């Protein structure tokens, strides 16, 4: 369908906007390209902001709900990464290339990919602003913008990454540097950090620590290494069952844990890391390192901060049960960018997508959402090159386990699930909108007893 110069037909841009809002003759206005001094405006039944795990998943589900041509995904990046694999990339067990696909190959056919950044939200007018001040209008909006890495909040970063001995599994730029630092380790402190902010995959900062310890043991360097975990938290893990199991491993492997220690500066030229003691304001300690793995501070994407769809902290303000926005009933949030009080993981996104799908179905029928998200999330805690503790839990920080075995124990089977089965499930089921988490299978696995 060709584009029409609106001004040549004498239609004012605002008139078109009114037509779009009314829902009449939507098809004729959807592909309008407005020339002259008016910005172009497009309309879709569903607009998904963000092309990460949550965004692609929901675009697949929404296409089946409202049909091809009626859904758009706004995402500037040409590459999409399966980020849970980066733990294994940093530990030398997987190649970075195997975590990458092109965004174009993942956008469902019939869904419009708008390759742009979102510049602002105007939920009162059912529109968002993108590059070149272009406006996109919607009937329903799903915000899936993820979380922002904030290396710059640590003095000396990100410029410190130009030096050796330092890496981060959280960034495509620095994950391979983690593996290089591990291979080049000779003697001294191997330090792993956890920041004083929300993070995605809260287990990942220590997963690489266990892999590094195992690698150093395998290569005969363990006796020359001090493994140190400096965490801003007051506990090793938020769920007691798994925390107890991890503490046993930490004792067995002679790992030093310093709680309430937050990284504030990296002096990469001197191989020094500076930590503040959160329980004693103003007190700092300098550590020399031979290897440093940085988990960066994280926060909401800039476009959400102070926006009408966000809470005071900058996170999308949604109901923890339905994922519907608390103020705007045709706006929804999913994944890391929301204020849902659960861990930010791909497993959480899977469970949320199933609930959100049902929520939107009912809202589209002018009915009240009834399906409730229980806060399910999962963290495969990699504790070695063939060992995983599969942590699964809910809002109440209580185990919500799928398998009829004790998941608080290290298991080789769970490692293979993490390394081999989960990537397959991600690419072939989750992103295509066919995987909503293990809830339907949990009762089956426990023979109806759970």
From TrEMBL:
Its EC number is 1.8.5.8. Catalyzes the oxidation of hydrogen sulfide with the help of a quinone, such as ubiquinone-10, giving rise to thiosulfate and ultimately to sulfane (molecular sulfur) atoms. Requires an additional electron acceptor; can use sulfite, sulfide or cyanide (in vitro). It is believed the in vivo electron acceptor is glutathione. Its main location: mitochondrion. GO terms for molecular function: FAD binding; glutathione-dependent sulfide quinone oxidoreductase activity; quinone binding; sulfide:quinone oxidoreductase activity. Its cofactor is FAD. GO terms for cellular component: mitochondrion. It catalyses: ubiquinone-10 + hydrogen sulfide + sulfite + 2 H(+) = ubiquinol-10 + thiosulfate; ubiquinone-10 + hydrogen sulfide + glutathione + H(+) = S-sulfanylglutathione + ubiquinol-10; a quinone + hydrogen sulfide + glutathione + H(+) = S-sulfanylglutathione + a quinol. It comes from the Eukaryota. Gene3D superfamilies: FAD/NAD(P)-binding domain. PANTHER family: SULFIDE:QUINONE OXIDOREDUCTASE, SULFIDE:QUINONE OXIDOREDUCTASE, MITOCHONDRIAL. The keyword Flavoprotein applies. Residues 44-160 form the FAD/NAD(P)-binding domain. One of its GO terms (biological process) is sulfide oxidation, using sulfide:quinone oxidoreductase. It is found in: Mitochondrion. Belongs to the SQRD family. Pfam families: Pyr_redox_2. Keywords: FAD, Flavoprotein, Mitochondrion, Oxidoreductase, Quinone, Transit peptide. InterPro entries: FAD/NAD-bd_sf, FAD/NAD-binding_dom, Sulphide_quinone_reductase. This is Sulfide:quinone oxidoreductase, mitochondrial.
């Amino acid at each position: 369908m060709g584009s029409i110069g609106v001004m040549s037909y004498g239609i004012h841009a605002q008139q078109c906007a009114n037509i779009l809002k009314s829902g009449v003759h939507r098809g004729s206005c959807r592909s309008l390209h407005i020339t002259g001094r008016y910005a172009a405006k497009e309309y879709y039944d569903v607009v998904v902001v963000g092309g990460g795990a949550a965004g692609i998943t929901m675009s697949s589900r929404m296409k089946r709900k409202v049909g091809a041509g009626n859904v758009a995904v706004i995402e500037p990046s040409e590459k999409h990464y399966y980020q849970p694999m980066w733990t294994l990339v940093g530990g030398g067990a997987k190649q970075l290339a195997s975590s990458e696909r092109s965004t174009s190959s993942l956008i469902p056919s019939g869904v419009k990919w708008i390759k742009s950044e979102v510049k602002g939200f105007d939920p009162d007018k059912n529109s968002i602003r993108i590059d070149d001040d272009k406006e996109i209008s919607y009937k329903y909006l799903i915000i899936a913008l993820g979380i922002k890495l904030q290396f710059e909040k640590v003095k000396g970063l990100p410029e410190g990454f130009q030096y050796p001995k330092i890496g981060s599994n959280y960034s495509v730029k620095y994950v391979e540097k983690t593996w290089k630092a591990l291979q080049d380790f000779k003697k001294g402190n191997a330090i792993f950090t956890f920041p004083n902010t929300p993070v995605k995959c809260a287990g990942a900062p220590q997963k690489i620590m266990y892999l590094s310890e195992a690698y150093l043991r395998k290569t005969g360097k363990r006796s020359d290494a001090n493994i140190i975990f400096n965490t801003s938290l007051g506990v090793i893990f938020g769920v007691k069952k798994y925390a107890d199991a991890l503490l046993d491993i930490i004792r067995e492997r002679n790992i030093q844990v310093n709680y309430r220690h937050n990284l504030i500066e990296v002096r990469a030229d001197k191989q020094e890391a500076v930590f503040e003691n959160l329980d004693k304001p103003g007190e700092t300690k300098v550590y020399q390192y031979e290897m440093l793995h940085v988990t960066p501070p994280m926060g909401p994407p800039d476009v959400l901060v102070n926006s009408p769809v966000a809470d005071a902290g900058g996170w999308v303000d949604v109901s923890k049960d339905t994922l519907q926005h608390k103020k705007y009933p045709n706006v929804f949030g999913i994944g890391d960018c929301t204020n849902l009080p659960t861990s930010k993981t791909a497993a959480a996104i899977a469970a949320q997508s199933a609930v959100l799908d049902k929520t939107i179905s009912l809202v589209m029928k002018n009915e009240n959402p009834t399906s409730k998200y229980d806060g399910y999330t999962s963290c495969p805690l990699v504790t070695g090159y063939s060992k995983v503790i599969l942590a699964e839990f809910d809002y109440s920080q209580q185990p919500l386990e799928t398998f009829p075995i004790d998941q608080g124990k290290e298991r080789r089977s769970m490692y293979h699930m993490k390394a081999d089965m989960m990537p397959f499930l991600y690419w072939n089921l989750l992103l295509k909108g066919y995987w909503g988490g293990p809830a339907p299978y949990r009762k089956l696995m426990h023979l109806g007893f759970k």
